[in-house]
Amino acid sequence: FLVADTRHVIREAAKKSCFVCYKLGASITCCEMGCDRTFHLPCAPDGQCVTQYFGAYRSFCWEHRPQQAVQARPSQDNTCSICLDTVENKISYKTMGCPTCQDARFHRHCIQRLALHSGIGFRCPCCLNQDPFMMEMLTMGIRLSKSPPSWESVQAVIPLGERHGRCDASTCLCPGGREHAEEEGPWQLRLCSSCAAEGTHHHCSSLGNSTYSWECNTC
């Protein structure tokens, strides 16, 4: 019965088109009663859709996604508390805020990156509130990790001050091996610009010689 149900779901999804890219195979439907918008998971950010990665794993289109009830800041300091770049002057899909201190503002992609790296230590970067903040982020579609903070695991493996020095591409093409690195050219080693805990040879990840930044799959 399970196999038959799975096949039925696949057949039905093959008939539905994504409202973001308009291609067939959209398997995710908005959970709002009466809404028939469907989309692919990779298309969700472009369509400003929200998928909640807990409980029933509900998904919502841009019109019916949950909204934050964060008040306007009196300071009007419209900078991201994580990257310090400018954010919108209002709460939106791309600009989020802390429900506890009502002061922190951050880009969605910045808080998502922080959540994955912080793991079980994830909290507001300003007021350090954890439980209400974490629940709010889950509701708004931020994925959390149950792992220890990435910087703790890196410090446990790599001695303080020692630079990561190996290629972590799924397939390393370097004749000299993963730990071989050259000053320039295809075998130059590029570290992740966000965590510096993973690296890749330029050639192994098809990076051009003019590429100055690269991010690992986790980031």
Describe the fold and architecture.
About 4% of the residues have low confidence. Strands 1-2 form a two-stranded antiparallel ribbon. A two-stranded antiparallel ribbon has the order 3-4. A two-stranded antiparallel sheet has the order 5-6. It is globular and about 60 Å long. Helices cover 19% and strands 9% of the residues. It is of the alpha+beta class. It has three domains: 58 residues, 2-Layer Sandwich (Herpes Virus-1), CATH 3.30.40; 89 residues, Herpes Virus-1 (2-Layer Sandwich); 45 residues, Zinc/RING finger domain, C3HC4 (zinc finger) (Herpes Virus-1), CATH 3.30.40. It is built from four helices and eight strands; from the N terminus they run H-E-E-E-E-E-E-H-H-H-E-E. One of its GO terms (cellular component) is nucleus. This is G2E3 ligase. Keywords: Ligase, Metal-binding, Zinc, Zinc-finger. GO terms for molecular function: ligase activity; zinc ion binding.
Topology of helices and strands:
Blueprint: H1 2-15, E1 28-29, E2 38-39, E3 50-51, E4 59-60, E5 95-97, E6 105-107, H2 108-118, H3 131-139, H4 150-157, E7 189-191, E8 199-201
Antiparallel strand pairs: 1-2, 3-4, 5-6, 7-8
Keywords: Ligase, Metal-binding, Zinc, Zinc-finger
Pfam families: PHD_G2E3 (PF26054), zf-HC5HC2H (PF13771)
GO molecular function: ligase activity; zinc ion binding
Instruction: Give the name of the CATH architecture of the largest domain.
Output: 2-Layer Sandwich
Radius of gyration based on Cα positions: 21 Å
Estimate the helix proportion, in percent.
10-25%
List how many beta strands DSSP finds: 8
CATH class of the largest domain: Alpha Beta
End-to-end C-alpha gap: 39 Å
From the spread of the alpha carbons, the general shape counts as globular
Can you count the helices? 4
CATH third-tier fold name of the largest domain: Herpes Virus-1
Low-pLDDT ranges: 154-161
Q: Strand arrangement, largest sheet?
A: 1-2
> How many domains would you count in the coordinates?
3
Portion in beta strands: 5-15%
Protein name: G2E3 ligase
Pfam family, one: zf-HC5HC2H
InterPro entries: EPHD, PHD-type_Zinc_Finger, PHD_PHF7/G2E3-like, Znf_FYVE_PHD, Znf_RING, Znf_RING/FYVE/PHD
GO cellular component, one term: nucleus
